[in-house]
């Protein structure tokens, strides 16, 4: 059991980091800090995928001798791909997309926070709840 | 494989944990945002160690750069300090996090072995890309080849997402020439309150008042 975990030791700190981000999302009422917690969570998920793609003794997935003339080098590049170990490029591609999409969603979230600050004068969710409920009772009374 | 870079990995993991816990503890938003940039940069350093050089420079440029700038701008427009939240909220969050973390840790023994070239995650599609790229596309960087050729439609979808996000931000914030009504906050607050009785549903707020 212990060596099963030791072979996979990389996942444990990453899970702790993910849960730290989730804790920030749940425990803080400040909307900007909550988005920071979401980014923390997200970046830790990127770490999870990239450690999945690691191959011990591997190279970054850039083929070294593909610069020669194309057809001659194709066979040589094939041989090199057999001989040299490379890390798995597919999770790299997926995470590359996810990083950029993550920034796009972060920008939308922050724009919403700025608008909430303009409309309510606060970005603490307790104050937002209080403002909403006092507005309802004010309309009734 | 006893290479010295694993100690660099351990040091980076330790620093990542320290920065994450500091983010939890701090309430000064400037410090929180800056530590988030540090976290992204440490992640980028670990990505280099994990052979993901393309991901590393994207994370350093986009995660540590653009994200930090966006968060700083939002912080300047909103607040500098986070207020402390109630203790029972911390306990509830801790309960959720411990339950989710325990479930994830339970799943760890089913994950592929770290660094194994023959694991299921590394054996099939990724190796096909490594073998086929020199034949199909004369691009030495396989990540580039997969991103822009094999999975070009994914990248097209990604740009659609970015375009949509930019459109959303513009619709939310305007181009900067948005007219600011005097006493913007009271006007914005007064508008729904004035509209609510006019909409002819005074019964609902009364009911909500009774419920609360």
From TrEMBL, chain A:
The keyword rRNA processing does not apply. Belongs to the CPA3 antiporters (TC 2.A.63) subunit C family. Keywords: Cell membrane, Membrane, Transmembrane, Transmembrane helix. GO terms for cellular component: plasma membrane. It is found in: Cell membrane. It is a multi-pass membrane protein. This is Multisubunit sodium/proton antiporter, MrpC subunit. Its main location: membrane. The chain crosses the membrane at residues 12-28, 93-114. Pfam families: Oxidored_q2 (PF00420). The keyword Cell membrane applies.
Automatic annotation (TrEMBL), chain B:
It is found in: Cell membrane. The keyword S-adenosyl-L-methionine does not apply. It is a multi-pass membrane protein. Coiled coil: none annotated. This is Multicomponent Na+:H+ antiporter subunit B. Residues 179-212 are annotated as: Disordered. Its main location: membrane. GO terms for cellular component: plasma membrane. Residues 185-203 have a biased composition (Low complexity). Residues 15-76 form the MrpA C-terminal/MbhD domain. The keyword Cell inner membrane does not apply. Pfam families: MbhD (PF13244), MbhE (PF20501). Residues 93-173 form the MrpA C-terminal/MbhE domain. It comes from the Bacteria. PANTHER family: NA(+)/H(+) ANTIPORTER SUBUNIT, NA(+)_H(+) ANTIPORTER SUBUNIT A. Keywords: Cell membrane, Membrane, Transmembrane, Transmembrane helix, Transport. The chain crosses the membrane at residues 6-24, 29-48, 60-79, 91-108, 156-175. NCBIfam families: PRK12504.1.
